[in-house]
Design a protein that fits this description.
Layout: H1 3-10, H2 15-22, H3 38-50, E1 55-58, H4 63-79, E2 84-87, H5 100-107, E3 113-117, H6 124-132, E4 136-140, E5 154-156, H7 159-164, E6 169-170, E7 173-174, H8 188-200, H9 215-224, H10 231-245, H11 250-258, H12 268-285, H13 289-296, H14 300-332, E8 341-346, H15 353-364, E9 368-374, E10 377-383, H16 390-395, E11 403-406, E12 410-416, H17 420-433, E13 449-451, H18 459-466, E14 480-493, E15 499-505, E16 511-516, E17 530-542, E18 545-557
Parallel strand pairs: 1-2, 1-3, 3-4, 4-5, 8-9, 13-14, 16-18
Antiparallel strand pairs: 6-7, 9-10, 10-12, 11-12, 14-15, 14-17, 15-16, 17-18
Helix pairs in contact: 4-8, 4-9, 4-13, 5-6, 8-9, 9-10, 9-12, 11-13, 11-14, 12-14, 13-14, 14-15
């Protein structure tokens, strides 16, 4: 059995499962009408088209909401809707989701139907206000739902099924006998795409098969929203990467260029580390409108201008992030003994602190809340991992906060600044009440397979591993482990000598270099020492030469 076959076997990919995973079929798309309220939404949109109503797509400022907004604008144009516009909330004005002031502003323009994307499931008061103003609302969303459904015409959210039929699902997949939607972890753009598929059954203008050209947006939003890349999500991204390689959108072609991503070499990693941060930078620093304008651009010159603006914003975002992270680390040291970090200060832009929270989580291996103090009120972002849900931690703090919510591993919260200390105490008490197993152990890399030498770590294996793309949550990159390998050389790199290039040699004298960025201090071992290493095989291409190396994910001295 080859090393690649061992990896497939370790991941449970054998027989027909292997073929379905490696080559997912678009024809296996699920029936969109199995989603809650889909029929009601389609009927209302048919009515709107027949009456030539004015419609507003209410988006979001992150990449999931942006791609979903662009997708619906494109599709509705194909279906022949004539009066459709988009409203993107400003993170620093409206904040996340529907607001009463935004609803009133939209209603004043004559809009009679609002369609939300990536938000709206918890917007009961805002949707009630819309109804008072004669505006109907269709919600398309994937976030946690309230016990009571908001009074919208339709609330299309897969998570509703998890609440209504919890015994029918495990890990967001249908296990029970009921005829329900089979997979619940769609991102916002995925839910919007299902609405388009449903509309295709009732409206002309977008023939069967032509909706596949929207998969570049679906793939981009799915990867960058960090949902599980399995099941229908995997299929969407698998085909989305292929559509993106030949995308018809001048904006995405320009963004690929400024991100230095070659269209014929696009991977999920290209989206997560190249395109995604640049698009998100607009909403983090100013308004997301620049990113939407880039996605919608028809002219190559305009597209390149917008893409370059996003690139410049991303550079500024990185500089701001570095400064905030430095300050936050100093404060975090005061709370090292806490199980959940809660840090705050004035001037920490709440457009950036979500990334800082992720940085602190990685550094301290603890769930983290980072808050910007804005006078009497503070806004913050949270990141978590393992068994601890920051969304649940926010929920048990209802009496201390103004509002908040989100996912298990990422959430937002607004609270009075005076309540920060009490909030810190509450979330740490909640952590202790759960009696969780040691969480840092969950961050340790585990290997798909163990090897005894580097004989099969070659370009053929790299090519075979590429068939497992797209990688992401639920389908991580392959990791191999080798014991008792000898360190041949160690090189420090970076302006602070924080990066590591490690040469290791097997018993037959074969050598491979392993790289780690911002490596932990204990990884800087000495030549001649024997170590166990976990790494992801990669291919380094430089000046026409290809070299097999590895991305180091874990290292332990071999005793």
């Amino acid at each position: 059995m080859t090393l690649f076959e061992q990896i497939l076997e370790a991941r449970g990919l054998a027989g027909g499962v292997r073929d379905d995973f490696l080559s997912p079929l678009y024809s296996h798309s699920y029936d969109p009408f199995l989603l809650p309220d889909m029929a009601q939404a389609v009927e209302r949109l048919e009515h709107a088209k027949n009456r030539d109503e004015s419609i507003m797509i209410y988006g979001d400022y992150d990449i999931d909401g942006l791609t979903a907004t662009a997708l619906l604008l494109d599709a509705f144009e194909s279906f022949g809707f004539r009066h459709v516009n988009a409203f993107l909330p400003n993170r620093f004005v409206e904040g996340y989701g529907l607001t009463v002031s935004a609803v009133e502003q939209i209603a004043a323009t004559g809009v009679t139907l609002i369609i939300t994307v990536d938000c709206g499931s918890l917007s009961e008061q805002e949707i009630k206000r819309a109804a008072e103003l004669g505006v109907d609302v269709i919600v398309t969303d994937h976030h946690n739902v309230a016990p009571v459904r908001p009074p919208a015409i339709a609330v299309i959210n897969p998570k509703r099924l998890l609440v209504d039929y919890p015994e029918q699902y495990a890990n967001y997949r249908l296990i029970g006998p009921k005829k329900l939607y089979p997979f619940l972890d769609l991102p916002g753009v995925g839910v919007a795409f299902k609405l388009v598929q449903a509309l295709q059954t009732r409206l002309n203008g977008l023939p069967d098969g032509q909706e596949k050209w929207l998969l570049d947006l679906v793939g981009l939003g799915t990867v960058c929203d960090v949902v599980n890349l399995v099941d229908e999500n995997r299929m969407h991204v698998y085909w989305g990467l292929r559509v993106l390689a030949k995308t018809r959108r001048p904006g995405l072609r320009a963004l690929l260029a400024v991100s230095r991503v070659e269209p014929n070499r696009i991977t999920a990693r290209s989206l997560g580390f190249g395109l995604g941060p640049r698009m998100n930078a607009a909403g983090r620093l100013e308004t997301a409108q620049c990113a939407l304008d880039m996605l919608r651009a028809r002219d190559n010159t305009v597209a390149l201008d917008k893409a370059e603006q996003l690139d410049t914003m991303n550079l500024q975002r990185r500089a701001d992030q570095k400064k905030i992270l430095s300050d936050a680390k100093q404060q975090a040291e005061r709370y090292r003994h806490h199980n959940v970090l809660v840090v705050s200060a004035p001037g920490w832009s709440h457009g950036i602190i979500g990334i800082v929270a992720a940085n602190l989580l990685e550094l301290y291996q603890k769930p983290t809340f980072v808050l910007e103090e804005m006078g009497d009120e503070s806004k913050g972002s949270a990141r978590s991992y393992g068994d601890f849900s920051v969304a649940d931690a926010i929920r048990v703090s209802d009496d201390l906060i103004t509002k908040g919510g989100g996912h298990k591993f990422a959430a937002g919260v607004t609270l009075p600044t005076a309540n920060i200390d009490a909030f810190r105490q509450r979330v740490n008490e909640y952590f202790l009440s759960l009696n969780l197993r040691p969480q840092p152990l969950l961050l340790l890399s585990s290997a798909d397979v163990a090897i005894s030498d580097f004989s099969e770590i070659n370009e053929q294996l790299i090519a075979e591993l590429a068939t497992l793309e797209p990688y992401g949550s639920g389908n991580p990159e392959v990791i191999v482990r080798i014991d008792k390998t000898v360190v041949s050389h160690v090189r420090r790199m970076g302006d602070e000598r924080q990066h590591l290039k490690l040469g290791v040699r097997d018993s037959a004298g074969r050598e491979i270099e392993l790289l780690a960025f911002s490596a932990p201090a204990q990884w800087f071992v000495e030549p001649g020492e024997r170590v166990t290493v976990w790494f992801t095989p990669t291919l380094n291409e430089w000046q026409g030469r290809s070299t097999v190396e590895g991305r180091l994910t874990r290292l332990e001295l071999f005793e």
